[in-house]
Amino acid sequence: MNIKKNITPAVQASPEILGDYPRANQSISPLLEALWRSPHRTHQIGTLDRQSKKFKNIPVNGVTEAVTKTLSFSSSGLDTYIALAEYKTPDNRTAANASGACAFWADIDCSDEKATAGKGYKTEDDALTALQEFCKRACLPLPAFIVSSGGGLHIYWVLDTFISRESWQAYATKLKDLTHALDFLADDTRTADIASVLRMPGTLNHKYEPPRPVTLERASSEFIEQSAFFDAIDSAHLRLCNVATPKQPEIAALPHLPLEPQSEIVVKLKKLLNHIDPNCGYEDWLHVLMAIYHTTGGGDDGFELADAWSSKGKTYKDIKEIRTKWNSFQSYKGTPITIATLIKMAKENGMKSAAEQNNLPVKKANSLDQYSLKGKSEEIAKQTLAEVLFLGSIAILGQLTAFFAAPNTGKTLITIWLIIEAIKKGLINPLHIYYVNVDDAAKGLSEKLQLADEYGFNMLAEGYAKFDASMLLDLINDLIEKDQARGVVIILDTLKKFTNLMDKTSASGFTKVARRFSTKGGTIIALAHTNKNLGKDGKAVPTGTSDIRDDFDCAYILSQISSEDGCRVVQFENIKRRGNVALTAAYSYTIEQDVSYNEILLTVQPISDAEVAPIKQAAAFKSDGEVIAAVTSCLNDGINTKMKLADAVSERAGISKRSALNVIEKYTGNDPVLHRWEFAVRERGAKVFVLLDQPISEQPSDLPDTRI
Questions:
Q1: Cis ω on the peptide bond leading into residue 22 (within 30° of 0)?
Q2: Do residues 600 and 649 share a domain?
Q3: Overall domain count for the chain
Q4: C-beta of residue 527 within 8 angstroms of C-beta of residue 493
Q5: Which pLDDT score, from 0 to 100, does residue 353 have?
Q6: Alpha-carbon distance 498 to 475, whole Å?
Q7: DSSP, residue by residue, 298-346
Q8: What angle do the packed helices 442-455 and 411-424 form, to 10 degrees?
Q9: Does residue 2 form part of some domain?
Q10: Could you count the other beta carbons within 10 Å of the beta carbon of residue 15?
Q11: Based on the domain organization, do 53 and 202 belong to the same domain?
């Protein structure tokens, strides 16, 4: 498909924007090759069927396949799009799956309706003029690619290197701030969204009748140096985006105003000017002044710096000459000269890095540098929450905590009770709590939802308000990308509904997202089950692979230790900890029949460690009662050495010899509260057992030696 567009005189009158690039060739390839430069990463296109309103993401193996499929889809009546970022896997087109990008972009709508609503421009000519003014005032280079979408413009600043998703997001957010500050009417939903798609040049826009061509208006083979682009954005952001207040929104559009943060810029400019000779030729001298002007927004401090530097030159006349030239820059319509020009000139004139100045080895940039956290300690500290115990003594804000328990042990009941207690104590804002309930029937959900409404926390449930468990990871990723995770507490009931705990890949993928959420200040409490069978140590075992326990900050096993007289006592036992959480915590609650959930909740009480020991002992006595009776019977029958006793108890109680030995040793001692028998060592080390209420005979046993 070869589409040509007639360029209006207004567009032709803007050579700075369109450049001297041929526009007749509407091939898709140049733009795709500029955006997709990493063959080892995944690339995608998209299609929209306007009749069914279904959008489909399609992974492709490189530019050639993308071009072939795109033209085919477009000719069949589908709208076709480029996924602008490069992705880790072909699984989805979410921001979390994006590795990064090679460009920044903006989407500008053009129509009478958009112009009237203040969300775009009337014509593409108006948009081009606004784009040129935006680049000039922000001191940004002109975009490398411009596409006419049929309903507006898509513009691309293509950089010379790949940008990681984290770096891209930071600078895209600043770029969006600049569009606001300078009233450049770009679509916010695209400028800072790395998962964006935009239309393919060389195709048709089927939104209109008849369809409109999507054409490539500018295509440059020269990409923008990343450091220069980032410096320009940082500089413009300092000048333009820290001024506006709710009472004076118009201030952001006045770049000539002196700003407080400008001192940082001036210091940097001074260091650069120290390495640039003011006796350079006129053209270089002019470029230096223009760079100072645009970098400082034409402010007085910039003028003073330009005059002070110029005054060191042999051809300097007086300050009036500098002022005249300085004021002339206000009407300059060409490509802005930025701080990048000064950096280049300073380096060419021998400017050395700090390492070079101290005769240290100069570090060369490598692929790891873009991921370095050097200098970001303050930023990360702001995302970190104070270590606050907010669910009793077993969960800390900003951590990932898992509670494992057998069904009907009370993990949901006690978790909700702990949440309500935290709200009552003011430890957490209930509006920040999201209890995701996908393990309840309608009646149970209704009861818990009443509690959520009463105490003001949020509850999500599958099948209600269009929520589905499969959406959770995307929602968490959205909180991360929008920097909204800090302070949010998510309770997952139960965890198996959100990831396959038996599949290591799935569980590991879940924990990676959860960890990114917690590093941004979010908290997750995951309720999960234990296996039906106990471990070799007789204790409950978490279900699934070890990823949740290994990758979470804290994990507990919740087990029943007593169930007497209509009351159940359960205990959390820590199996993984970071921070000052308790090793154990016990609670009791009623298990009487015909009691409402609210009434059961009212009976929950914490149990102190001092109270737990006798409760556990009493429960153990009851559990071991049959074996204790068998041991007592054997001792009364005169079977009183250890191995003979174990054999007899095994036979009478119908248990293994090992189990019999465990019970014998468990209740051996001289404390009648905890023990049932004791022993004395006789000839050749034989252990002779007697019940605690019977004296030990001084005579040696007539039984054979059974030392162990």
A1: no
A2: no
A3: 4
A4: yes
A5: 57
A6: 12
A7: T-HHHHHHHHHHHTTSTT---HHHHHHHHHHGGG--SPPP-HHHHHHHH
A8: 10
A9: no
A10: 9
A11: yes
- The pLDDT tens digits for 318-353 are 888 888 888 888 777 666 787 888 888 888 887 765
Distance CA 669, CA 678 (A): 5
**Does residue 706 form part of some domain?**
no
Task: Check whether residue 396 and residue 421 sit in a common domain.
Answer: yes
Q: How far apart are CA 590 and CA 705, in angstroms?
A: 51
462 touches 435 (CB < 8 A) = no
Q: Residues 501, 545: contact at Cβ < 8 Å?
A: yes
The H or E element containing residue 274 is none
Q: What is the pLDDT of residues 657-680, one digit of tens each?
A: 888 898 898 889 988 878 889 988
| E strand spans, 383-426 | 400-405
Task: Give the tens place of pLDDT for each residue, 502-520.
Answer: 988 889 889 999 999 999 9
pLDDT recorded at residue 79: 93
Give the domain extent around 289: 231-236+245-360
Nearest to 105 by CA among 82, 74, 126: 82
Residue 39 confidence class, pLDDT cut points 50, 70, 90: confident
CA 505 to each of CA 130, 474, 531: distance values in angstroms, whole numbers, following the listed order: 49, 17, 20
The residue with tokens 């998510």 is 490
DSSP states of 190-240: HHT-TT-EEEPTTSEETTSSS-EE-EEEEE-S-PBPHHHHHHHHHHHHHHH
CB-CB neighbours of 174 under 10 Å = 18
